[in-house]
Fold each of these.
Amino acid sequence: MTDPTAPPFPATQRAGFSSGFGVLAATLGSAVGLGNIWKFPSLTGANGGAGFLLVYLLATLLIGLPVMMAEIAIGRQARANPITALVALSPRRQPWWLIGVAGMVAAFLISSFYSEVVAWVFAYVAKALRGSLLSSDPAVTEAAFQALITDPVQSLLWQWGVLAFIGGILLLGVTKGIEAITKKLMPLLFVLLLLLCAFSLTLDGAAQGLAFLFLPDWGKITAPVVLTAMGLAFFKLSIGMGTMMTYGSYFGNDQNIPATATRVMAADLCVSMLAGIAIFPAVFTFGFAPSAGPSLVFITIPAVFAQMPFGQVLMAAFFVLTAVAATGAMLSLMEVPVVTLHERWGLSRPRATVLTLVLLMVVGAGCALSQSTLAGFQPGGRTLFNWADYVSSNLLLPLGGIFIALFAGWAWGADNFRRALSNQGTLHNGALARAIVWVLRWVSPPLILAVMLRGLDLI
Ligand code: PFF
């Protein structure tokens, strides 16, 4: 008889992260991504500066961190991919594993549009190194960006190149691939960021940039802004789709889950703030309006750097930094289907990686061609790129978050969850674990529901 409480894949048979720093680097690598560069700083500046930061911190305490801890604890307890983990921990064969299936779909959808934006970043690294981006006229930098995204061959080839690069790292495995690479990339990210910040703070517009970012404007904190901050916490911390469950399954038994999650959240916030400090003083110094999204990264920033001394070097550093941030996030996105195909369908890990890669090349092509060949194909008024973003961010991630909170708070058993958070009672964090269970039961689900209804324009 096998022991029914034993994990489906015992730790000894499964790869995992080999050190505390590796755990931190990989998990932070997943959280840090494009979101830190084009979403967080602009949202902070536009929505009330320090006031928005405070709301974001509250959203993280009530939703982000508890769901992240629940995911990691579930993954570590079961030592399996999200679907198998939820089958193993569910009482009486309840269908909680559907969360894992929705997570797989979300991972595919996010990967398919996210990889296209990462593709533009990689293309810009090459352009920056060649010096072909240097123009202080935003009309010129906009034309260059349009030329890239409306060219189907370039869009597709850069995307497939990015997917193959990430797939190549995943082929090396969890320890020698994900962990080893993120251990190198995360310190590099901080070095590049600090260098860019130091330079940016010497510019004339530094005070204006910092004021835009941080000066509190409480009048801007409206209900929609609060819901935006909560939605941002989801995307930023890579939760609601099984990524953190998957990485949790690689955590060692002695890892302190609440402490690690909190460190990751704090370091991620730090990266977002530093990115804002690197970007906005420069944007104001050269008389640009602060924008967000692709136009900030691919149109405004090249025009800003073109006017600076050492502009080409600094621009290359900026795009390398963005590529580094995006690599860790992409690794975690692709790892979810890879490990699920490997463990559930019995494919070898290399085969599961190649199959994921091929599937993503096909699904992702729809997003890659959304600005060119398929630009006219807009069922329901959205391109495939926009649908992938909309369905994953507004529906699947919040839905996943609600059910993960309900599973951890109710179905799994509060005692089991608390024991997992306290490493079977060795950590003496009982009060904290009780508070987390309480928040997951009563506070997170209704708040996430509000975020979802807002995202779907239903409230
Ligand atoms: N956290 C990433 C970012 O902020 O860019 C995005 C992301 C990565 C979302 C991985 C979800 C995920 F599973």
Amino acid sequence: MQRRKLLTAPATLSIASALPVIPAKQAGMESLQFGPNFNFGISTSAYQIEGAVHEGGRAPSIWDVFCHEPHHITDGDTADVACDHYHRMPEDIDLIAGAGIKNYRFSICWSRLFPTDDRTPNATGFGFYDLLIDRLLAKNIAPWMCLYHWDLPQRLQERGGWRNRDTSARLAEFSDQVSRHFGDRVSHWMVLNEAAVHSRFGHGVGVHAPGLTGMASWASALHHLNLGQGLTIQALRANGVKGRIGTVACVEPIWPSTDKPEDVAAAQRLDAMWNGAVLDPLLAGHYPELVAEYFEPFCQPGDLEQTHQPIDLLGVNYYSRLHIQADPSVPLDANFGPDHAPVKYTALGWPIEPDGLPEILMRITNTYNRQEIFISENGFATVQDGRPVNGLRDAGRIAYLQQHLSFLKKAIDQGANVSGYFVWTLLDDFEWDGGLKWRFGLVDVDYETQKRTPKDSYHWYAQLIKLNTAVTA
Ligand code: IFM
């Protein structure tokens, strides 16, 4: 996801137990104690790991189509195979279990479950997720299911996709059927992943699937995602699912690149669209005044009552602040710009700003009545050609996670109601327009052989969880 500038056969696993245990002080984790009820977890998404795009009766999604069009993805990569998780799911779950991780957020592929229409389930697709969930439960790992992580069935795109109001109802209908099937086993339901990114990148500036551009397309997609989310929450509640219900948003502090009035105004507009227009309809039942005009053509009477639904918890994906400058060449005249000289960048050129985490968490806490939150994604990428020279010794990733956890603790001390922290991500995976080159995993994947090798960060995370468990047991 190029949201900031870009600079530039079953494996034999050696898992946590194989690593010599480094003293907590040396590993920098002695102060990272979060208490007995805190949920450490890990997140993935279906399209980024599953592969097997033509197997088990699956039909194409918008991302299959987009990847196979020229020039969209770095190096022309596709996710046709990705991590081959569809065939290697048991060993991948064993990796999660091997690190002592007790919570797993994954998404389900809509076009694997309903390839032909919205009423005819594909038994093979349901069978795959049945096996996955049952294996998680057998390993004492809670299944956190995300219903929609950007891979809309292409058949729905052909009817207008998220610009078509009917897609909101289709999401609710899909979720209704899914929740009837899995409702007794899923511990947490997350409706959407990052509506801000999916609407702006996919429907506003066209660098993600389905590659659409323009302000009207962006706003209509976002409104229909918000509406579909509200309808889905109601469907899940009506079905009496056992699990808790929430959604996932990337909420980030948005700062102007400079003090120039046009940059300040651009940052305010993007903040209203990126943060406000995602959270306000859900948690407060309105759109921010600054951008409300863009939604008027699509927002029908009663819609904001449908979008405004109580949730049990909000997933917050945090990577850094966004630094914004005025740019008339993009919708909303607001684009990513230079940063405020942060100390360091990741290899993607994303600034490393752990202090932005308490900033955004306190804002959510103060604006939305101390809403319960969990950090649903936080992670660090390297950019890699070929096999890692030093990729398994990922001290930079460990430092990044450690710093963010330490600032997360500050937010909790200041009063934020945060009940969990999930790393992005388990495996090096297909990173959207970044292709296979961007590597976020705690576990290295050799795409030639599909061999999985845990990196140092995997062992570090295992040790952190163990330490928290030992202290709180
Ligand atoms: O890979 C993505 C994920 O799908 C959504 N959040 C950001 C991650 C890193 O780019």
